[in-house]
Amino acid sequence: MFSCWLSRLCRGLSTPTGRVTHLIQGSLSRRLMLSSQRRIPELSSFVARTNTCGELRSSHLGQEVTLCGWIQYRRQNIFLVLRDFHGLVQVVIPQDESAASVKKILCEAPMESVVQVSGMVISRPPGQENPKMPTGEIEIKVKSAQLLNACKKLPFEIKDFVKKTEALRLQYRYLDLRSFQMQYNLRLRSRMVMKMREYLCNLHGFVDIETPTLFKRTPGGAKEFVIPSREPGKFYCLPQSPQQFKQLLMVGGLDRYFQVARCYRDEGSRPDRQPEFTQIDIEMSFVDQIGIRSLIEGLLQYSWPSDKDPVAVPFPSMTFAEALASYGTDKPDTRFGMKIVDISDVLRNTKVGFLQDALSKPQGTVKAICISEGAKYLKRKDIESLRKLAADHFNQEVLPVFPKANRNWNSPVAKSIMEEQRSELIRLMEIQEDGVVLLTAGEHRKACSVLGKLRLECADLLEARGLVLRDPALFSFLWVVDFPLFLPKEENPGELESAHHPFTAPHPNDIHLLHTEPKQVRSQHYDLVLNGNEIGGGSIRIHDAELQRYILATLLKEDVKLLSHLLQALDFGAPPHGGIALGLDRLICLVTGAPSIRDVIAFPKSFRGHDLMSNAPDSLPPEELKPYHIQVSWPADSEAEKSSLNQPYHPES
Ligand code: ASP
Asked: What pTM does this model have?
């Protein structure tokens, strides 16, 4: 009935669109959306079970069911707890002679063997209910059982509380995936991605398009993985993101593109990075910054898990300059204060030599943060380790001052600060009783960076002592905007590199500075920050070929030939366009509260970029390299590696 009505309606809709049709279409899509939201998934269709272990309740009493799952636990050969992705259920092992074969199967199968059982849902005897188990009111009276596959001795128990090293978890990832936590993380990820697709494609007309993985080297940005080809001396590269393709799709009139895109960056290991990772990649034509920001706010609000506090929109925003000055970073954690304060004016006339030195230089400043209750919670050795961190990593001196409590922990400046300067500091920095001030002097950017780092370290220290600064249930989103278009190159500060990527458009108010003071040009680049982590970034793009050529060739000194396809495309009526990419792994990691992005990826690489399960990357014998016209030039100290070609594999520990 419904399908007949639906097909008639759809046929009607394929006529040229008029206002009425639009209205019908709108209400149809809303109705389809609601019905898909309400639909409960059918978890046992097409398979050899009638129900999942986790779904059975008193409402199923008396039903004959067939379940498939792993043996989690067995008690006195009387009870067995069966587990599947959906939960646990207690199975009663029959004790009567006539069921001896069933008893044998269920009592002899090792833990984690996979079995199928059939029987009746019965209620547990009074007093034996388990309120901690969702299925705790019932049990299964088994009539038949089948051992589907026995489990050998496991490298670790499948219990979340059993401690195991990450190397072991990654080596046996398929077993690790059986844990409750990994199941939760991957299923939440899948649900969020589904909602994102729904929001983008069904509600806002985006087109899901796959772009190539075999691409070529492109200038700027991250290091790329190189893939040999059969043509001598020719290589593909894995794309660091689909950036060029998504812009070309706009030239192609696709108008609204999105992809759950795999990206590759050969950047070595960091705790929150992976050599291959996933982005929700988006591009739109005829859009401005506000349009992209509203789209993303709506997307996150729509896809946000229902068991978390709802996302409040619009997200606040902050300029890059403000973020650096107040938090010492372009990804501020705004869940707590302890902001950086410029106290140059207060201390301009002190007698302290190193402050005077710093202030006499052109960019010289004195900056400070105030750790509320620092005197109560931080020990002398904590302050010393903070100072050491500043000295070792930033070559920057940091001094503690205790303006109110007047305690003197190695603070040569405290006694040189006059009474009125002291009261001015207390006013300016809102210093309370027991507050500790950490002070540093030097060039603006450097002084901010060091205090930004110490601010986070202090938060860790205070939280380790029991103070809650960052509510784990709080999700604090922030847009950071007005980035500079260029930064000095790290390895050669005389040259420029793009702060985002070379396709980012300059801020319209700063275009005139491109030819005179490129370093002063702000860009139309925006980053999305969540609890101090960058979870997305994008920009309005350059759609004018001339401007793009000038930035690439003249300012960035890149070889424009490598991008001639893109430059040419811009000349053929490229529409104004912009986009963004959200780092899906990082986002899910923060939403689930997982300690690492590896915990929200089914098969991640280790810290050193290896797949510990399959031993990738792996060696290839020389004859297999021949078709690619390449050979390995072994480093002098790699004899061991060379001879390991045919050796058994030992994972990283
Ligand atoms: N392609 C960019 C990145 O991966 C995102 C964007 O500009 O849309 O960071």
From this structure: 0.89
Burial of 595 by CB count in 10 Å (0-12 exposed, 13-18 middle, 19+ buried)?
A: exposed
Ligand 1 binding pocket includes 292 (Cβ within 6 Å)? no
Q: What is the pLDDT of residue 28?
A: 44
For residue 299, give the amino acid letter.
L
Q: How far is the CA of 450 from the centre of ligand 1 (A)?
A: 28
Q: How far is CA 625 from the centre of its chain?
A: 36
Task: For a ligand 1 pocket test, name from 223, 259, 281, 498 the mutation site with the most ligand atoms within 8 angstroms of its C-beta.
Answer: 281
Instruction: Indicate if ligand 1 lies below 6 Å from the C-beta of 539.
Output: yes
Determine the pLDDT at residue 40: 84
pLDDT value of residue 653: 40
pLDDT in tens, 274-299: 999 999 999 999 999 999 999 999 99
Does 535 contact ligand 1 (Cβ within 6 A)? no
72 near 81, Cβ under 8 Å?
yes
Q: How much is the pLDDT for 642?
A: 57
Q: What is the DSSP letter of 554?
A: I
Q: Would you say the CB of residue 580 lies under 6 angstroms from ligand 1?
A: yes
278 CB within 6 A, ligand 1 = no
Find out whether 369 and 327 touch, Cβ atoms under 8 Å: no
Q: Ligand 1: does its nearest atom lie under 6 Å from the Cβ of 505?
A: no
Residues of the chain scoring pLDDT < 50: 1-32, 34-36, 646-649, 651, 653
Tell me which residue has its CA closest to atom 1 in ligand 1: 243
